[in-house]
Specification:
29 strands, 575 residues, 20% helix, alpha+beta, 10 helices, globular
Length: 575
């Protein structure tokens, strides 16, 4: 009888017969440090008996890892990887092939690498249960949920790019993501722009990301920082300027430009030219191979504000379908896919099946409530079917130029108004690097996080309860509960600016508060008849008040609103 030995390989157990072992066509080695728990990434390095040079197209390399645990099966592509020193950002070690698998369940996972007809020996990894992990984000009606079914309500801000290069990237994102998470935020939006995490630009030939592996590695670190803090990222793959000659134009430096050796004479050809589509499909496959397994990835965004490019919707629609198929091939977790326009009315594609969620941007000094009422009109019929997000918002598209106290009024309103008007998350403010972080306004997220905690907002309907002439009320409700935000009608950026201009020598810490309103009555309709608990909440202080009772009869109830200086919120729940 032949004796058998156990070989330990980085926490995984392999069984082999004694004697001389043949050299496997592919070997797997675990890179991720133990312990291995559910809802985390397992990363493996792949070594081929016949080495294969850097290649950034998984279709060309045909190098995949198949992972199975019970009835759960995943097929993930390999990608070319280079490590870097976090202090100097100098390359370290030898580049090679990696693959990442998101461990969706606990148990024994078996991994096998395949390259054509070659395959590796099985690698078995024991994965423990992780009760504190929620899994990937998925669409839940017109909202979002984690894989375990618990609601995901995006609360956050844009964090598009770092303020500097090199190690500054890690420093900035460590600070920003920590502040966001510590104050109740759980969502951000990051661009893969030419000056940040983009994989191709004038320093790279099309399809060759070697000169940008540093940027790819930095994005790895940022996503790891986000995952450790429970923050989910909308990853924007294309910014409008790269294909625009008029708005934030970068076309002159774009490698797709024929002047730089690319295939295109006009940026509009990007979605129609076969060569351009082939090169971008390769980039999509690499992005999916490298980042899809990250639990920090919330969704993919194809474009930021594509309406600022010359690309026409009739050409964009088939491109969206083609690229969605490419991403689904390499993303077994099927993250939601979206794209953005500068306004809701800038596109007719919101009902396209290729877009799982709707989003728009808003820069206006007008009252956010009034602006969002107008924005919802073109897509009102779809609001019950798809999530809607205000994914970029600011008082002024030119910068955070208003006095701090005025800008803060707008920020506060953009955090609260969207959720209370049927959006799937808070508004995501834009001026994170030049204003929000320097002024330390991160605490603005604490109130809304506390107010909606544990609430499955998907499927809830919009309402506009009646209040006094000097207050506005917006809310969401189902048959047995309502969440309502009541705000002073004068708590707007416009009114704040008027007050600021009328203040003689305003102090540096000037803030705006309109004249308080006395007690008033709020009329609420749409709930089932019965007894309800009424609990008021202070959005500014993030503090709950005492709980009272009310009766809903004939679908209507009235409750008293405490004296109002800025705003109050109330949760009404059937007993």
């Amino acid at each position: 009888m032949r004796r058998r030995q156990l070989f330990q390989l980085a926490g995984a157990t392999l069984v082999a017969a004694c004697g001389v072992l043949p050299v496997a066509p592919i070997t797997l080695q675990i890179v991720t440090a133990p312990p291995y728990t559910q809802h985390t990434i397992l990363e493996v390095a792949l070594t081929l008996r016949e080495p294969m040079a850097a290649n950034y197209d998984v279709v060309a390399t045909d190098l995949w890892v198949e992972a199975q645990c019970g009835t759960t099966r995943l097929r993930v592509p390999a990608f070319w990887y280079q490590d870097f020193d976090p202090q100097t950002l100098a390359p370290t070690g030898t580049p090679g092939w990696r693959a990442r698998c998101f461990l969706t369940t606990n148990g024994d996972w078996q991994l096998i690498a395949r390259h054509g007809t070659d395959q590796s020996a099985p690698l078995v990894v024991s994965v423990a249960v992780a009760t504190d992990k929620t899994g990937m984000v998925q669409i839940d009606g017109n909202g979002f949920a984690y894989a375990d079914g618990s609601p995901f309500v995006p609360i956050g801000v844009n964090l598009g790019w770092a303020t500097g290069q090199g190690a500054q990237v890690i420093s900035d994102y460590t600070r920003w993501l920590t502040q966001l998470a510590d104050n109740g935020g759980n969502a951000s939006r990051i661009w893969m722009a030419s000056w940040s995490f983009g994989l191709e630009w004038r320093d790279t030939p099309l399809g060759d990301y070697t000169n940008r592996l540093r940027q790819a590695w930095l994005l790895d670190q940022v996503l790891a920082l986000a995952a450790a803090r429970g923050v989910r990222v909308m990853l924007s793959l294309l910014n409008h300027g790269a294909f625009s000659t008029t708005t934030n134009p970068e076309w002159d430096a774009n490698p797709y430009n024929q002047a730089n050796g690319g295939p295109l004479t006009d940026p509009a050809q990007f979605v129609t030219d076969a060569t351009a589509r082939r090169w971008f499909a390769q980039r999509v496959r690499y992005i999916g191979a490298r980042y899809a397994a990250s639990p920090a990835v919330w969704c993919w965004e194809w474009w930021n504000e594509i309406n600022w490019t010359p690309i026409q919707e009739r050409d964009l629609a088939p491109w969206l379908g083609e690229m969605q198929a490419v991403m689904h091939e390499v993303d077994p977790y099927t993250h939601p896919i979206t794209s953005s326009w500068a306004s809701v009315s800038a596109t007719s594609l919101w009902d396209a099946p290729t877009l799982a969620m709707m989003q728009h941007h808003l820069y206006s000094s007008d009252d956010v409530v009034r602006s969002l009422n107008t924005a919802q009109i073109p897509i009102r019929a779809l609001l019950a079917q798809k999530p809607l997000l205000l994914s970029e918002v600011g008082l002024d598209a030119g910068g955070a130029n208003a006095p701090d106290g005025v800008e803060y009024v707008h920020l506060h309103n953009t955090v609260w108004a969207p959720l209370m008007m049927g959006y799937a998350g808070t508004g995501m403010y834009w001026w994170w690097d030049s204003w929000l972080d320097p002024q330390q306004h991160w605490t603005v997220f604490a109130g809304i996080k506390e107010f909606v905690a544990g609430i499955r907002m998907a499927g809830m309907r919009r309402s506009a309860p009646k209040c006094s002439d000097n207050a506005i009320a917006r809310g969401i409700y189902d048959d047995t509960q309502a969440l309502i935000w009541v705000r002073h009608a004068h708590y707007t950026a416009q009114k704040a600016m008027q007050a600021y201009m009328q203040t003689s020598q305003p102090p540096a810490d000037w803030h705006y508060a309109p004249t308080a309103l006395p007690w008033q009555t709020l009329t609420i309709k749409g709930l089932q008849d019965g007894q309800y608990a009424v609990t008021w909440f202070d959005p500014q202080m993030a503090i709950w008040g005492a709980t009272a009772a009310t009766t809903v009869a004939n679908g209507t109830t009235q409750i008293d609103v405490p004296p109002l200086t800025i705003d109050m919120a109330v949760r009404i729940v059937r007993q």
